[in-house]
Amino acid sequence: MLIYGKEIREKIKEGVARTAKKIPMSMVVVRIGDDKSSLAYVNGIKKIGDETGVKVEIASFSAGISLEDTIKQIDKLNRDSGVNGIMLQTPLPAHLDIAVLANVIDYHKDVEGIHNYNLGKLISKQEGIKPATPKAVISMLKHYDIPIEGKKVCIVGRSAILGSPLAMMMSLENGTVTLCHSRTKNLGNETRNADILVAALGKANYITPDMVSEDSVIIDVGINFDENGRMVGDVHEESKAKARIASAVPGGVGLITVAELFDNLRIISQKNMV
Fold first, then answer.
1. Does residue 263 sit within a domain?
2. Phi-psi region of 41 (alpha: psi -120 to 50; beta: other; left: phi over 0)
3. Could you tell me the sign of the dihedral formed by the alpha carbons of 252, 255, 256, 257, in that order?
4. Residue with more model confidence, 105 or 227
5. What is the chain's alpha carbon radius of gyration, rounded to the nearest angstrom?
6. Domain count for the chain
7. For position 235, which CATH number holds?
8. Less packed terminus of the chain by CB within 10 Å, N or C?
9. Is-above-0.85 flag for pTM?
10. pLDDT tens, 99-108?
11. Domain that holds residue 246
12. 65 — phi, psi (to 5°)?
């Protein structure tokens, strides 16, 4: 059975819209370069802003902007009291490091939840802004009443903004977590033993049918494009057909992730009013 994110997204949007009627909310998306898939994503953010009453502005810069100038532009947004949230759109040009720039953003305005301050809050089990995509994964599982507690959770991909924080969040939900990566030996053994398998490595159709069990729940976080320009996930369609439950791509976690950015903005804006 395929599961989708639209209903979850709409529910989150309703909460954001209610808050936006009471509190002014604004977000700036920093977009560097002219990546086409990036533009589609940014336009999607702008659309949700229009639908929820949240002011969304796009700050666009050329792909050749220096690290120093990028930092200056972000710092200007940090000091702008009219901006509640800042998002740094990826992918970035090769000479710009997301790990550096994510920590230039004022952590009070970090709608993606990827500043070291917010990641540190997560690791130390304190309240903070959670990373949007891991948050979306948890939201999807809870919406469909898929239990995490006591389950074997295998996450393939250990990035600092997705796989690693998701492992912590799954652990906080009392799942038993295995975090796999490119050097994991016998990866198929780990994925087949999982009750919940999360694919978050960014490689099209990487998880093949022989790597999954029939009783598993698969959450496919991957967004890739095949040779025909069609959006595909990290999990092969035949693998999803074999599993008990699997999230769709497109139409799955990605839809929720965008909404979670706005939910994080809602949390930030409410804190600023206290």
1. no
2. alpha
3. positive
4. 105
5. 18
6. 2
7. 3.40.50.720
8. C
9. yes
10. 999 999 999 9
11. 132-254
12. -60, 140
Euclidean distance between CA atoms 75 and 103, whole angstroms:
11
**Is residue 196 assigned to a domain?**
yes
Q: What is the CATH number of the domain that holds 33?
A: 3.40.50.10860
Report pLDDT for 38.
77
236 by DSSP, 3-state: which?
coil
Give me the helices (H) in the chain, please.
Answer: 6-20, 36-52, 67-78, 98-101, 116-123, 132-143, 163-172, 187-192, 237-242, 253-273
Q: In this structure, are 100 and 138 located in the same domain?
A: no
The span from the first CA to the last CA of the chain, in angstroms, equals 44
What is d(CA 254, CA 131) in angstroms, rounded to the nearest whole number? 13
Measured over the CA atoms of residue 78, residue 131, residue 3 and residue 184, the dihedral's sign is positive
**Residue entry with tokens 């595909």:** 232
Closest to 10 (Cα-Cα) out of 52, 55, 42, 46: 52
91 cis-preceded (ω within 30 degrees of 0)? yes
Tell me the β-bridge partners of 19.
none
